[in-house]
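Every protein is a chain of amino acids, and every chain bends into a shape of its own. Below is the pair of lines this work produces for a single protein:
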Amino acid sequence: MSKIFYIADTHFGHKDIIAFDNRPFFDVKDMEETIIKNWNSVVGSEDTVYILGDVFWNFDFTKQIELTHKLNGYHIRIIAGNHDDGADIYSNYAIVEDEGRYVVLCHYPIMFYKNMVNPNWYHLYGHVHAAWDHNMTENWRKQIEALYLTEWKGYNVGCMMPYMDYTPRTLDEIIAGARKMRGLVKS
């Protein structure tokens, strides 16, 4: 049975992202090889992967195709990020169904995403990297939860997040990892 996976901010070809995110790679080649290896270790030939933006950095279309052909998956869909000029974009925003749940996909975090108080709706995003913007997102998450008295089900799927570990993840894996990181689940 095919699965759906999600990931963001791979930044293939972007050497400065290694220092910016404090990524554990020696160089761009090491980062790309690790992400490709991790990707192919979980994604099968019939699976779908949504990449929520910032896939490539200064790649021409030919190089994008070459790298994409190294990745497993029947459908690889790119949701546009702020660094995806010239990429073969699927959409800027999408809502997909994943095992009876609805998932709002956007590169950017949406504070008040569609149907956010409905228990079957989720929001996945990327874009948020460094400590200050991650902390800002977490602060407004807490404020929204206090206002609506419910868990805000928005999750950062940037590959550098500890629960992503430079690997595409299923919705269940993302939810479990993010909730553990937020302290909502005991280790």
Observations:
- The chain has five helices and seven strands.
- The first strand starts at residue 4 and ends at 7.
- The chain has a mean pLDDT of 92.
- Residues 56 and 63 are 9 Å apart (CA to CA).
